[in-house]
Specification:
alpha/beta, 22 helices, 6-stranded mixed β-sheet, 3 domains, about 30% helix, binds molybdenum atom, Dimethylsulfoxide Reductase, domain 2, Rossmann fold, about 675 residues, Barwin-like endoglucanases, binds ligand MGD
Length: about 675
C-alpha cells in the first residue's frame, strides 16, 4: 500500500515548497508538489524531484570516515565525536576559541540543523565568515533605503499592471513565481525583463532590455532623470514619505537618457519608453534578483533601482514594491530555540567570506587550526577556488558534515554523514520570497546508525560540558523555535502538520509610509551610507573593465536543474560555455568544441556553445560543476561588492582557447 506523507523542500531557494512523499514498504517511491500549498500548488521542480535521487544514491555517505594517509577508513560515531571534541579542546587550550573556524552556508534550510550556530555561540564564539556569497550587497542597499528588507506576498503581485524582473531568472531559480506572473499578464500586466542575457525568463517578456553587465545603476538613474524631467513623479509620496528628494533630483542632471544610453549600450528612447511604462502603469512592481548585485557596484545598483519605486510612489501600495527578499517574516522564528537569550553574548572573530583564502593564509592571532564545514561546499562555491584549495589544505584539521563526498569533503580529514530532510522531522521556511512556514515530517528512518546533526551537536555539547546548551529532544527544540508564534497565534506543530502557516507580515510592506530608517522616511539621501564611507545618494559607479589579455566578462549564474553544486555530484561532463556566435573571441572555434577557459585566477575545460542570446563580450558558464569537470570558481576573483561584503563573482574576465591536445592534458 502506498502512503502519502507531507514534507518540505530544504533547498535554499525562493520558493520553499511543500512536498508530498509517496512511501511503499518503508521506501520512498515518488515525490510531488503539495497541491494544497498556496505557493507550490502541486508543482515540483527538477531539483526538488532530485531529493529522492540523493536519498538513495549509491554514493551517499553512511558512516564517519577518517583520512588515513591517502585512503579513508570508516570509524564508529563514538570515535568520530571523540576526535572532534579533542580537536576543539586542543585548539581552544593552545590558541583560544578563535583558532576554530565554523563555516555553514545554505545547503539545508531546516530549523533542526540550525543548532550548529547555537553550539558555536555557546562555545563563546569562534571564527565565522561575515558578508555573503549570495545577497548581501542588495540587503545592505535596501536597509539604507527602507531601513529593512521586506517583500510583497506572492499573491499580491497579481495586482501589478507592470512588472519589471531585474537581474533574476525565475524560470530557472524561482519557478513558482511564474504562475503569479502569468496571472498578472492575463489581467493585462506588461512584463519587462532586464538581463544582459536572453534567458528563458527574458523570452517571455513584452520588453527585454539587455544592458551591458554592471551598468543597471546608470539605466535606473537615466530612467529616473526622464521621470523627473517629464514630471512623472508622485509629489504627495515624495513630500510626505521621503528624505533627500531634491538632492537626488539635482544629482541626476548629467544622467540624461542619452548619457545612460552611452553607458548601458541601450537606446535612449528605449530607456525613456521603459521609464514611461513603469511610471504610467501604476501599480508597478519591481522584482530584483541576486544576479545584478554580484558586482563591485552591486549595492549602488540596487539603491538606484529602489529610487524608481520611491519616485513614482510605488511603495506601500498593492501591486507595487521593490521585491528582493523578505526579512519581516523571520522575526517570528527563534532559531536558537529559546536558548540564547539568557546567555552572555558570544564574541566571534569574523572575516569577509568571499576573501576566505586570503584570511586563512594571513590569520595569525590566532591562526586557524580546525575548520568545521556543514551545509556547504566552499571549495566549489567560494571565488578563486584554487587559492581556497591551497589555503584549506594548510589548515591542520578539517571536519566536513555532508551527505556526499564533495570536493570540500575530499579535502577534509574527517567526514561526517548527515540525514536527508526525508529522514528527520523539521520546519522549513525561506526569507527570499514565500512567507510560509512548512512542516516536514520524518518520512523514512535514516539508514543504519546514521546520527542526525541535531544529535551530533547534542553529543558534542555534552562531551564539552557546554553550559546552557539545550539538552532536549529535537521536537522540543522545534516547539521552542516557534514559541513566539504559539504565544501570539496559538500555532502548534500539530497544527502545522495539517497546513503550512503564513508567517505574519504585511502582504503589502510599508503600508503607512513609515520606514525603518533613521529619518522614518524612505531615504534617497542616507546619512548612514555616508557614515559607512559610501556616497549618501544612489550613485552610478562603473563596474570593472576587461583587459587586453582577458576580454570576455564571465557571468556564472545559477543552473535550472541544480541547486549550486548539489546536483552535479559525480558528473564528469565539462561545463557548457555560451558565447555569441559572432564574438571575435570565438576565432573559428566550432560549436561543441572542447575549449579551455582561462582567467588570471586559473583555467578550466569547457564545451563551446554558440548562443545568440549571449551578447558579444560575455562568456556564460553556469556555476555548480565540480572540480573533476571544471569548477567555474577556479576562474572567479575574490573581489567584494561595494556594500555588505558580498562576492562580486561577475567581475571576472577571461579568454577562451582551443583545448590543449590530449598528451599535454589540462593542468590541474
Ligand atoms: N535552479 C536553481 N534555483 C536556485 C538556485 C540554484 O542554484 N539553482 N539558487 C538559489 C539561490 S541561493 C539564489 S541566491 C537565487 C539566485 O537567483 P537569481 O537572482 O535568478 O540569480 P543569478 O542566477 O545569479 O542571476 C540572475 C540573472 O541575473 C543576470 N545578470 C547578471 N549580471 C547582470 C547585470 O549586470 N544586470 C542585470 N540586469 N542582470 C544581470 C544573469 O544573466 C541571470 O540571468 O536562486 C535560488 N534558486
Ligand atoms: N561563480 C559563482 N559562484 C557562486 C554563485 C554564483 O552565482 N556564481 N552563487 C553563490 C550563492 S548565491 C550561494 S547561496 C552559494 C552557495 O554555496 P553552498 O551553500 O556552499 O552551495 P551548495 O553547493 O548548495 O552546497 C551545500 C552542501 O550542503 C550539503 N547538504 C545538503 N543537505 C545537508 C544537510 O542536511 N546537512 C549538511 N551538513 N549538509 C547538507 C550538500 O550535499 C552540499 O554539498 O554559492 C555561491 N557561489
Ligand atoms: Mo544564494
Amino acid at each position: 500500500m502506498t502512503q502519502t506523507l507531507k514534507f518540505a523542500c530544504p533547498l535554499d531557494c525562493f520558493d520553499a515548497c511543500g512536498l508530498l512523499a509517496e512511501v511503499a514498504d518503508g521506501r520512498v517511491v515518488g515525490l510531488k508538489g503539495d497541491p494544497a500549498h498556496p505557493v507550490t500548488r502541486g508543482r515540483i521542480c527538477v531539483k526538488g524531484k532530485k531529493l529522492l535521487e540523493r536519498l538513495y544514491h549509491p554514493q551517499r555517505l553512511l558512516a564517519p570516515r577518517l583520512k588515513d594517509g591517502e585512503k579513508w577508513k570508516t570509524i564508529p560515531w563514538e570515535t568520530a565525536i571523540d576526535i572532534v571534541a579533542r580537536q576543539f579542546e586542543n585548539a581552544i587550550q593552545t590558541y583560544g576559541r578563535h583558532a576554530i573556524l565554523y563555516y555553514a552556508d545554505s545547503g539545508y534550510g531546516g530549523l533542526v540543523k540550525s543548532v550548529d550556530r547555537l553550539f558555536f555561540n555557546r562555545l563563546g564564539g569562534v571564527t565565522v565568515p561575515r558578508g555573503s556569497l549570495c545577497w548581501a550587497a542588495g540587503m545592505a542597499a535596501q536597509r539604507y533605503d527602507f531601513g529593512d528588507v521586506r517583500g510583497h506576498a506572492p499573491h499580491d503581485l497579481v495586482q501589478a499592471r507592470c512588472i519589471v524582473i531585474w537581474g533574476r531568472n525565475p524560470v530557472a531559480t524561482n519557478p513558482h513565481l511564474m504562475p503569479f506572473l502569468q496571472k498578472a499578464r492575463q489581467q493585462g500586466a506588461r512584463l519587462i525583463v532586464i538581463d544582459p542575457i536572453k534567458t528563458l525568463s527574458a523570452r517571455q517578456a513584452d520588453i527585454h532590455l539587455q544592458p551591458r553587465p554592471g551598468t543597471d545603476g546608470a539605466l535606473a538613474l537615466g530612467m529616473a532623470h526622464h521621470l523627473v524631467a517629464s514630471n512623472r513623479v508622485d509629489d504627495a509620496f515624495l513630500s510626505r514619505h521621503t528624505h533627500g528628494f531634491n538632492r537626488f533630483a539635482d544629482s541626476l542632471q548629467a544622467l540624461t537618457p542619452e548619457a545612460a544610453a552611452a553607458v548601458t549600450g541601450l537606446d535612449a528612447n528605449t530607456i525613456r519608453r521603459t521609464a514611461e511604462q513603469y511610471a504610467d502603469r501604476i501599480p508597478s512592481s519591481i522584482i530584483i534578483g541576486m544576479g545584478l548585485q554580484r558586482y563591485t557596484n552591486g549595492g549602488q545598483t540596487v539603491r538606484c533601482i529602489d529610487a524608481l519605486a520611491a519616485l513614482t510612489g510605488n511603495i506601500g501600495r498593492s501591486g507595487g514594491g521593490v521585491n528582493y527578499a523578505n526579512r519581516s517574516i523571520t522575526r517570528w522564528i527563534d532559531r536558537d530555540g529559546g536558548a540564547q537569550s539568557d546567555a552572555p553574548p558570544p564574541d566571534p572573530r569574523t572575516f569577509p567570506l568571499p576573501r576566505m583564502a586570503h584570511f586563512l593564509r594571513s590569520a595569525k592571532t590566532p591562526p586557524i587550526k580546525v575548520i568545521m564545514v556543514a551545509k556547504a561546499n566552499p571549495l566549489v562555491q567560494v571565488p578563486d577556488s584554487r587559492a581556497m584549495q591551497a589555503a584549506f589544505a594548510r589548515v591542520p584539521f578539517k571536519i566536513v558534515i555532508d551527505m556526499f563526498m564533495t570536493d570540500t569533503a575530499r579535502a577534509a580529514d574527517l567526514v561526517l554523514p548527515c540525514t536527508s530532510i526525508l529522514e528527520e522531522e523539521d520546519l522549513v521556511y525561506s526569507s527570499m520570497f514565500s512567507p510560509y512556514l512548512n512542516y516536514a515530517r520524518q518520512v523514512v528512518a535514516p539508514p543504519g546508525d546514521l546520527l542526525s546533526e541535531y544529535d551530533l551537536f547534542r553529543h558534542l555539547a555534552r562531551r564539552l560540558n557546554l553550559s546552557g546548551y539545550p539538552d532536549i529532544p529535537a521536537r522540543h527544540f522545534l516547539e521552542n523555535a516557534i514559541r513566539p508564534l504559539t504565544r501570539e497565534f496559538g500555532l502548534t506543530i500539530d497544527r502545522l502538520q495539517t497546513a503550512p502557516f503564513k508567517l505574519p507580515h504585511d502582504d503589502v510592506p510599508w503600508p503607512d509610509g513609515k520606514f525603518a530608517t533613521p529619518s522614518g522616511r524612505y531615504e534617497f539621501y542616507s546619512n548612514k551610507a555616508r557614515q559607512d564611507g559610501g556616497p549618501p545618494l544612489p550613485t552610478y559607479i562603473p563596474p570593472l573593465d576587461a583587459s587586453p589579455a582577458f576580454t570576455l566578462r564571465l557571468l556564472t549564474p545559477h543552473h535550472a536543474h541544480s541547486l549550486h553544486s548539489q546536483h552535479f555530484a559525480f558528473r564528469d561532463d565539462v561545463p557548457v560555455a555560451s558565447i555569441h556566435p559572432d564574438a571575435p573571441e570565438r576565432q573559428g572555434l566550432a560549436s561543441g568544441q572542447a575549449i579551455q577557459v582561462v582567467s588570471p585566477q586559473g583555467q578550466i575545460p569547457a564545451r563551446l556553445e554558440p548562443d545568440p542570446g549571449v551578447p558579444p563580450g560575455i562568456l556564460k558558464i553556469d556555476q555548480g560543476w565540480w572540480h573533476q569537470s571544471g569548477a567555474v570558481n577556479r576562474l572567479t576573483r575574490d573581489t567584494l561588492s561595494d556594500m555588505g561584503e558580498n562576492a562580486a563573482f561577475f567581475e571576472t574576465f577571461c579568454r577562451i582557447e582551443p583545448a590543449p591536445d590530449k598528451q599535454g592534458g589540462h593542468t590541474p
